[in-house]
């Protein structure tokens, strides 16, 4: 498959090394948090190789410690492309509507383009649901800029019952930020917190960590045995976050990268699996309109 992609890009590579090199001297890909930095870099290395071949310039991967590192990189022009969550895209857009443009969205194996925030706990904790089982217990979020790891659950979970708030000590004994999806999963699995939220497509088998998402990546990495965990909550459908490109990039660069990402799944399924965090049908075009509701939710949260 990799050879096929190489051949497919060979015709453009010669042009790229001349045409693109005059406009950009390197291409920088940001990788949102969710798992440890080295694993993220490993998953994206194949994409970096293909990008370098397609554009004819050096490619650098950046895996900041938190979501805001990628957001600020896009806003400041030090990152050219990233796969953002919907809330991270909203954060970027609200700070500068002209900074990036969404071009592609991940497609699940059933053709849908949504995912869920998943609440989970250790099975041996005897927790079956958020209410009333989590009263007086410690609940974990991932990152303040995460859609499924904070924004959506912080809005939807209090709607379960009037008694539930996100103020530490009121319903939950404490509400903590773990730093990311992988950290939340490990913290729950190790018993450091009672329950938390992460993201998954909600398709496939629980014991596999579903088909794609942070749970699937944790299973693949050997971090957890899903049989030791239980699902205690699931959000409404959330639109998958977009692959974005800096608007200031040359049009031919943006077109080349959009095409490369769009065809990555059919050309190299293994590479696409790592980039997309599991089994998918690849990516398809998306526009800003898909994220208008998330942008409004984030604005309301910021004002609350």
From TrEMBL:
<dbReference type="Pfam" id="PF12974">
    <property type="entry name" value="Phosphonate-bd"/>
</dbReference>
<dbReference type="InterPro" id="IPR005770">
    <property type="entry name" value="PhnD"/>
</dbReference>
<dbReference type="GO" id="GO:0055085">
    <property type="term" value="P:transmembrane transport"/>
</dbReference>
<protein>
    <submittedName>
        <fullName>Phosphate-import protein PhnD</fullName>
    </submittedName>
</protein>
<keyword id="KW-0732">Signal</keyword>
<dbReference type="InterPro" id="IPR017797">
    <property type="entry name" value="Phosphnate-bd"/>
</dbReference>
<feature type="signal peptide">
    <location>
        <begin position="1"/>
        <end position="21"/>
    </location>
</feature>
<dbReference type="GO" id="GO:0015716">
    <property type="term" value="P:organic phosphonate transport"/>
</dbReference>
<dbReference type="GO" id="GO:0043190">
    <property type="term" value="C:ATP-binding cassette (ABC) transporter complex"/>
</dbReference>
<comment type="similarity">
    <text>Belongs to the phosphate/phosphite/phosphonate binding protein family.</text>
</comment>
């Amino acid at each position: 498959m990799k050879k096929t992609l190489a051949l497919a890009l060979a015709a453009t590579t010669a042009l790229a090394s001349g045409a693109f090199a005059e406009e950009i001297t390197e291409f920088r890909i940001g990788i949102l948090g969710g798992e440890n930095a080295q694993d993220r870099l490993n998953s994206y290395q194949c994409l970096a190789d293909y990008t370098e071949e397609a554009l004819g310039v050096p490619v650098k991967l950046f895996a900041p410690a938190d979501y805001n590192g990628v957001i600020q990189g896009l806003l400041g022009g030090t990152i050219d492309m990233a796969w953002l969550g919907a809330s991270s895209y909203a954060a970027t857009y609200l700070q500068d509507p002209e900074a990036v443009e969404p071009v592609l969205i991940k497609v699940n194996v059933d053709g849908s383009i949504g995912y869920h925030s998943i609440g989970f706990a250790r099975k041996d904790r005897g927790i079956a649901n958020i209410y009333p089982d989590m009263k007086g217990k410690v609940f974990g979020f991932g990152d303040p800029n995460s859609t499924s790891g904070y924004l959506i659950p912080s809005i939807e979970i209090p709607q379960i019952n009037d008694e539930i708030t996100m103020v530490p000590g009121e319903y939950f004994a404490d509400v903590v930020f773990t730093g990311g999806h992988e950290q939340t999963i490990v913290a729950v699995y190790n018993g450091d917190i009672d329950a938390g939220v992460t993201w998954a497509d909600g398709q496939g088998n629980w014991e596999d960590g579903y088909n794609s998402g942070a749970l699937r990546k944790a299973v693949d990495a050997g971090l957890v045995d899903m049989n030791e965990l239980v699902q205690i909550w699931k959000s409404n459908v959330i639109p998958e976050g977009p692959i974005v490109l800096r608007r200031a990039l040359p049009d031919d660069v943006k077109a080349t990268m959009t095409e490369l990402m769009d065809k990555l799944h059919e050309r190299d399924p293994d590479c696409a699996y790592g980039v997309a965090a599991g089994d998918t049908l690849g990516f398809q075009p998306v526009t800003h309109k898909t994220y208008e509701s998330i942008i409004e939710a984030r604005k309301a949260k910021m004002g609350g």
